[in-house]
Amino acid sequence: MEAVRAISESGEAHKTVEVAFTVYEERGMHGAKHFDMSKIESTQAIVLDSGGPIGTIITTAPGQQSLKITIEGKPAHAGLEPEAGINALTVAADAISQMQLSRIDDETTANIGVVQGGQATNIVMPELKIEAEARSLNDEKLAKQVAHMISTFESAA
Predict the structure, then answer these.
(1) How far apart are CA 153 and CA 135, in angstroms?
(2) CA torsion through residues 83, 84, 85, 91, sign
(3) What domain of life does the native source organism fall in (predicted)?
């Protein structure tokens, strides 16, 4: 904002300056998803959203895709007949143990950040919800990682 104020007050000729603010980046880019890019005329941008020391210049940003996975098992009484159930956690554990996660290569990462499930200790877990993401500087690598994650869950089911 200080830069915009200084440009405005300088009286010097300058290119058009457009400023946009978005919210909720860390939980899925909710602000940016609803941003109307047709209102922006600029072909270049400076984005002020990064870690590191002040003055650090970031020249690329990864693409990101979120995944929400629901695994449906089958409830059963864990003490009386656990074999009658299908434990959603066991299915998830099988998939996750075969999945490439964390740093995939120098451009790609993948993470499972949220796991929710279960109702009680005496019930075979009937449902498990997972929230995951993949990020990459390369769109093809991103698509490949997402496909890998999805197919791993599908194979385990």
Answers:
(1) 18
(2) positive
(3) Bacteria
Q: What does the alpha-carbon distance between residue 70 and residue 9 come to, in Å, rounded to a whole number?
A: 55
d(CA 142, CA 96): 18
- For residue 145, give Cα distances in angstroms to 39, 76, 86, 108, 133: 33, 34, 28, 8, 10
DSSP assignments along 114-138, one per residue: EEEE-S-TTB---EEEEEEEEEESS
**Residue 111: strand pairing partners:** 133
* Interacting residues of 6 by C-beta distance below 8 A, sequence separation 6+: none
Lookup result for tokens 């003055």: 55
Cα distance between residue 77 and residue 151, in whole Å: 30
Tens digit of each residue's pLDDT (9 = 90 or more) over 65-115: 999 999 999 999 999 999 999 999 999 999 999 999 999 999 999 999 999
Of 87, 70, 86, 76, give the one whose Cα is nearest residue 131.
Answer: 70
> How many residues are recorded in the chain?
157
The architecture (CATH level 2) of 63-156 comes to: 2-Layer Sandwich (3.30)
